[in-house]
């Protein structure tokens, strides 16, 4: 998890990037859903049943964990869909981006924890839904299976895991001979140089099979491609803005780790970032594509 390269821009800029992308990219491209409809229906059915069950008197009608929570924005959004008595806990090993208590609902707690390590025994088996988003840039090929196993321990029987990721195998700039494409390919070479590819691992592609092979059932995947929105009146602009912010933060991460190829100084990163902005947003001479995967699975009853 310490490999994550997007923590090296100004803290305020990184917080803004995470929250802006949630509202303007990830929710809209998935059909304006915070959770998949089947998972939302499951949560609402639990709320209805438990509010009528004396055995749950004084207990949360539903309990949800968000792992790799960042600012906690996903939980803040989800809170509006659930009763204020719902238990909503966010976990992250980096607490610097946590929203202050005053800017989140009182039932949203943000706590320090690392998904690469076993979760405390007292929270294992207590959640109806575990949500994970955008860990891919911090993971090595050998990390995925043990993290999946750790996430499974959090769930009650029948509970859902929803894991959302961008895959690096469909991270492309167009035209193929453009400076934007060269920069995006350079980012992928840097990713590979850090030992984050190999061994036939292509996750999140195939993450459904990994989950089914490791104690989950009914795993399935949906993929949302930003290229499908290139002609959309608003989402073309928001997805390309998102890509620009990723490039900006990632190139600064390259510099922070000692530099890579021709990106050795902050000035190098700024130069390439500025060129990407011109191509993507100002002159619109290039486009970028990335695929956003939503993998859903359940812990058996």
TrEMBL record:
Residue intervals of the Methyltransferase domain: 64-159
Family: Belongs to the methyltransferase superfamily. LaeA methyltransferase family.
InterPro entries per UniProt: Methyltransf_25 (IPR041698), SAM-dependent_MTases_sf (IPR029063)
Protein name, UniProt field: Methyltransferase domain-containing protein
Species name: Sporothrix stenoceras
CDD domains reported for this sequence: AdoMet_MTases (cd02440)
